[in-house]
Amino acid sequence: MAYSDDVLGRARVTETAELGAYYEQLAKLEAGALWTIANKIEPWYPQPQSVPVKWSYAELRPLVLEALRLVTGDDAGRRVVALYNPQRRDIAATVGLLYSGLQIMGPGESMTAHRHQAAALRFVIEGTGAWTIVDGQKLKVGPRDFAITPNWTWHEHGNEGIEGGPDPAGPVIWQDGLDIPLVNALDAPFYEVHPDVYQKQVGVTNSSLYTYGAGQLRPFGADTWHKSHSPLLAYPWEPTYEALRNAAKASDGSPYDGIIMEYSNPLTGGSVMPTMSAHMQLLRAGESTSAHRQVGSKIYTAAKGSGTSIVAGQRIDWTEGDIFCVPSWAWHEHANASTSDDACLFSFNDFPVMRALGFWREEAYPDNDGHQPVTPN
Amino acid sequence: MAYSDDVLGRARVTETAELGAYYEQLAKLEAGALWTIANKIEPWYPQPQSVPVKWSYAELRPLVLEALRLVTGDDAGRRVVALYNPQRRDIAATVGLLYSGLQIMGPGESMTAHRHQAAALRFVIEGTGAWTIVDGQKLKVGPRDFAITPNWTWHEHGNEGIEGGPDPAGPVIWQDGLDIPLVNALDAPFYEVHPDVYQKQVGVTNSSLYTYGAGQLRPFGADTWHKSHSPLLAYPWEPTYEALRNAAKASDGSPYDGIIMEYSNPLTGGSVMPTMSAHMQLLRAGESTSAHRQVGSKIYTAAKGSGTSIVAGQRIDWTEGDIFCVPSWAWHEHANASTSDDACLFSFNDFPVMRALGFWREEAYPDNDGHQPVTPN
Amino acid sequence: MAYSDDVLGRARVTETAELGAYYEQLAKLEAGALWTIANKIEPWYPQPQSVPVKWSYAELRPLVLEALRLVTGDDAGRRVVALYNPQRRDIAATVGLLYSGLQIMGPGESMTAHRHQAAALRFVIEGTGAWTIVDGQKLKVGPRDFAITPNWTWHEHGNEGIEGGPDPAGPVIWQDGLDIPLVNALDAPFYEVHPDVYQKQVGVTNSSLYTYGAGQLRPFGADTWHKSHSPLLAYPWEPTYEALRNAAKASDGSPYDGIIMEYSNPLTGGSVMPTMSAHMQLLRAGESTSAHRQVGSKIYTAAKGSGTSIVAGQRIDWTEGDIFCVPSWAWHEHANASTSDDACLFSFNDFPVMRALGFWREEAYPDNDGHQPVTPN
Amino acid sequence: MAYSDDVLGRARVTETAELGAYYEQLAKLEAGALWTIANKIEPWYPQPQSVPVKWSYAELRPLVLEALRLVTGDDAGRRVVALYNPQRRDIAATVGLLYSGLQIMGPGESMTAHRHQAAALRFVIEGTGAWTIVDGQKLKVGPRDFAITPNWTWHEHGNEGIEGGPDPAGPVIWQDGLDIPLVNALDAPFYEVHPDVYQKQVGVTNSSLYTYGAGQLRPFGADTWHKSHSPLLAYPWEPTYEALRNAAKASDGSPYDGIIMEYSNPLTGGSVMPTMSAHMQLLRAGESTSAHRQVGSKIYTAAKGSGTSIVAGQRIDWTEGDIFCVPSWAWHEHANASTSDDACLFSFNDFPVMRALGFWREEAYPDNDGHQPVTPN
Fold this sequence. Notes:
The structure is a homotetramer of 377-residue chains. The first copy, chain A, has 377 residues and is of the alpha+beta class. In chain A, 18% of the residues lie in helices and 30% in strands. In chain A, the strands form 6 sheets. Chain A has a 6-stranded antiparallel β-sheet. In chain A, strands 3-4-11-6-9-14 form a 6-stranded antiparallel β-sheet. In chain A, strands 8-7-10 form a 3-stranded antiparallel β-sheet, with no helix packed on it. In chain A, a hairpin with a 2-residue loop joins strand 19 and strand 20 (314-319). The radius of gyration of chain A is 23 Å and the shape is globular. Strand 3 (80-83) of chain C pairs antiparallel with strand 1 of chain D, so a sheet runs across the interface.
């Protein structure tokens, strides 16, 4: 299909002085002629302002650590280095309508409690002392663990490590993922600080893991859960990795993603939250995938090993802790750099939004055995 | 609740030269310090850039008619005067992420067929000759009728009137409503022109009305409909008005909206499309309502009678054909100007998006017997 | 497929004296050898004990009227002539696990209020004075109207006609349909008499008709209805008949049923109640249909005109008021006796049960142009 | 509430000779007077014909083993000792509309493949060599494992042990649970033998366990599963037991059931099949529960340890392998006999039917601190 706007069915009005005067009259009434912008606002296919970007953990980590010294957690609210897509700084977006950043908490620190309409998720990059309290439930999370803070849940978090003390110690750095730009685009943000500054813990630590962690068994009576998010608030790394390796025994996986699994709400099988979903995928030793594209934005984090992804023709080499993004409808494919070890990519996305609103599409790259041409640097 | 940002739980870092240098380093890595914008991107409550606007039909109609002479339908694609919110011209939005415009078709005209990811709806303002073909199904619509063009359905339309001929004749002016800004904000637009320029009609005219028009009876076997939109594509005025008057016999209605009904998918009871819903509401003679607000944007059209609405403290007087908008979370209330006749307001909104994503809220105005203070002009 | 039990895969144990002794030992422990009954309890296809039966209204009506004189409503609870399938009298079933009967109420009579786990539906055969109060809501119903009394709703009914007085007068005869045998088979019955003997009416008469009677428009906020049954409690004849005639303009209908529509819950598009659904179908002048069969039991009532149905090879001639049944998986087809007028059949069934439990199947009669051989009388 | 039938609102017609003659006339027309049976078919509360029964494994096991010698698997179809409720032998029911039995397979045996409308489940009592193939998928199951054979899936099974050979060897005895009486009550049975007598295995053994065994992670794209049953076909004992012990860390469990979990479909959170659900519950050392009752039938198997249950006032002592049933609406409570070890009860039920049809109720025993009086033997 040729995408020319010079065809019957597209706007192609020849501008004249008379039309110019007409447009001025319309403008005075807060109106305008649709045909002057129709082709721009109804393009043939997605034209994201976001571009592929890689954030090197090796480069960012020193600056994240520097923040520990520069600002207190209480003054910053959260001590976070935000990741911005170059053309989307105005809306604080990392890609599309998603936001991500790297948060650091020093040993013994804790952040105050608040809640907001935006939903949040965490993926721990380093440090063993992290905890979070979500609506009263305390969770401990370690490297490569995934956790959620669903919208309007009270939450606070900290690092229980003691500097110079026994393990665990040292700072915690985790990746935040939020749908703040989406919430703002829809004029739906709300925010509250906790009236008591800090929550009181309810029940034992990790209670949702104990209760819902065996996803195929649920407490009898759990059909009384009517919230739109998963009752399971944390997804540890070990069973996730085991699930991927088990799945690899039974399936060749996806030609585009290797072995890929979605963190899901054990009571519905759906995504963990209504606006964002998260995946962990495993690329077997030596595996390289074919390209595909989807409607929706994705943010990847190299969780294990190293490799290369091609995103919209741009080569991105990654190793543990690196973060990169894939704009909507951009071709992307992945390769594990190792021929002996597997590699894992964590990612989160706004696919649940696309599905809920009827916007979901995906497509395989049709040519060249499924591989895009790579733009030379 | 006081909304001060100078509290524990909000960002309140004192800027320093050292921090300034730090921010520059971050900027080079496509990053930034979250605390510098945290309060702005996570406000206490919605801060829409859209404002209340009224578009007077008496003022706009001459300009809309003028378009008939100035551009052909084929050149314009669609001959539409778009309605823009002052600060949202860049995204062609009427309010929030919704778009609306007034489309005109001369007697005997027809527009070519296309489809797009954006969903569309129509509310006929004047003229009796309008028809539309949606995925092969031809529908005829008259004044105050409501019709839908769900996303990615092929559609074309026209005006069967013959100038100077017998009734129906004269131009058709209908209001378009689309979710184009939403689709674009989510990087999800697609567009195709019909390969044959025009569709072939399938079946009898108004077939979905004949088949699904009695909403509480459905064809046996209709459980095979799996599309996300209503199989009923048009909702005529007469049964709508009768439904409102019947409902008034059984209920006092809503304190905020009088007698208000939602056009619904008869196979699911849900909204007609996954991104937009539409309402028709009846204000009884002399009725004035209390104020409330909702998360979501609304565009109103005065369908019958005249009255006054207060939106975010701004007084808007309306009569038939006038259009006005209510931004998200703006207080609004309505009054019928007549003490002898009822008045009707048509409106459409993005509430289904808010519900699907977990953003829905509504709230009654708590003070002054439910009435906002009105800003003097 | 041949249905022989003398094949590998079916039980075919040769009985011996030793086995006989073994069976006796098992019997003492409340056990038995499955192979002795396996073929019987796992037949190749349904083997209903119910048979096709026709109940002639001309024959039954005098006896139903006689009941008026013989017993009072208060003594009888309800004054009903029950219709029994010959082999299912022990469970009071009309066909399968469905029950039906003809209830009569004299002018001025009213029955006391109760509720039960069984769901009920009504189809009015004759008389204009009938009313029912369901959970406080009063409904008036006339000939060919359909009404529901969902499970565990308080209900009472009566006939407001005054003997010798002005119209409406005369007795009301309506057909009851209940799932009593189903409820009992599942050991789930409950029953209560109303503590005040009679309910107090809430709101205006026919309020659910006023509120939900335009099925494709619903009161805004109706998404707060969470009951498993339709909020619309009565479905009058006139719009039903109009819906059938409209549908006939747009469709040839079903080859097995002519134009057939299902009474549905306007808030879900589903059946009116979770255990029973009801249909009204129209056979056009001269129309005769092909045979098909379904898993599920059906009870038909001739609502308009006259005709002939073939059920499991048995010819059933019907005229207004006649009732007949179709057992599960029995072939059936219908013909309108008139070449100038349409004919209508009301029916109700347990299809929602079959669908909910995964038992639903249907099949067209494959031979002889879709017509079964008819068993000579 | 007193349950007397001699009240206004219940049928209480005095029989007379005239009525007797009337009843005879009705009988000739396949009809009857409802008031003669109304109170019987609409009782105040469930009156199951099923009674509590215990089947002692110690008593039954020798007879089950005896079947190995008496009949071949091919002749028997399946070599099963069925468990019958005394008054429900006519419909081959163990309790309510559920069936259960003990199936034995000798080392090296395999049963031919078939499918039927009835759904089946298995709970392994003893033996380590069992396998089953369900729609091509081979599963190996050991003691205390739970597996499902959803309705209309092809299935066959066997015991891979070799008599006199290395471990695994010896017979397998597993408990079957089927909804045969339910399927038959609804006139919905179908049955087919596999055209090739045996299925071909597809994929690796235990593939659904590898793919769906981590219930809170699902293969991306699993939203394409649209069957009404769980894609996970086997639920091994070890993670089940671990889930119960984990849940006990976070919750005191149910006052009626101790720590109780439901085997669930990881893609929906619902029951494993639409007609039957299964539970495993853990009674902590020394735990005894309060009594409650539910609408629905249950069959229990002592999976670990020993204890006592009181069912409808009847004391049932159980130890591993014993089976007992709880009729609908019967009070029941459980006690672990050990003060040092936990005990586990497996059970399956027809609760999904009750929920789907709107019949579900449950109730706590109100008196005597929640404990029923026990009927002396």
